[in-house]
Amino acid sequence: MKVEPYKFSGVYSITDREQKSISTKSLVPGTSVYGEKLVKEGEDEFRLWSPRRSKLSAAIKRGLREMPIQPGSKVLYLGAASGTTVSHCSDIVGPNGVIYAVEFSQRTVRDLVQLAAVRPNIIPILDDARHPTRYAPLVSGTIEVVYQDVAQPNQASILYENLKTFCSFGAWGMLAIKARSIDSTSSLEEVYSREIAELDNRGLEIVENINLEPLEKDHRFVVCRVTEDMT
Q: Global pTM?
C-alpha cells in the first residue's frame, strides 16, 4: 500500500494492488464516520473518501482542477446532512480552519452535532439555507468558500444569496446542482444551463462545470468565484 499527497493540499492518493483511491488524513484517528475504510501509514491515519458517497469526492475523481477548500480555510457548508463530506472537509481545513455546517433537518442535524463534538472545527447550524441572514450572527468573520449541496428548486439563487451575505471579492462558490430537485420535466442540459446562466448573470465567474456521471446521476458540479462587488 502506498500513500502520497494528491494534487490538492489536504487530499491524498492511496494505491493498493494497482487500485487508486483518494483520502484525507484523519483529524480524529481511530474513528470512522460513515463506515469508510481507515488506513494507517506510520503515525498517520487516512480515511478513504468514496466518490459514491460524496459529490466533492466525485468531482475530484472526474477531474476537478480548482479546490478552494484548503488547510486553514473558512467554509460555509449548506446542506451538511449527517456530515459525510463535511467530515472530510474537516480533515482538510484542519485545526486552523472552520466549517459552518448548515442543515435544515432536525433529525439529521443530531448526527452532525455528534460529529462536531469530536471535531471542534465543525460548527453545526440548524437552519434553512434559503435565509442566510437568520444564521449570519452565528458566523464569525468573512467566509472564503461557500459549498452547497441542497435539494431545492432555486439552487443558484441560494448560493448567490449566501455568497452575498458572507463573502467578499475573491471568495469561491462550489455547487452540486441536483437537476431533478429543480425541474423534473425539462432536459438535464436545460436545467444545468439555466442554473449556470443565473450565476453568470449575477456576476459570478464560472470556473468549472463538471458532469458527475456515472458516479452521481443527474448531477453537475460547478465552481465559481466572486469577481466583483456584491453589495
A: 0.95
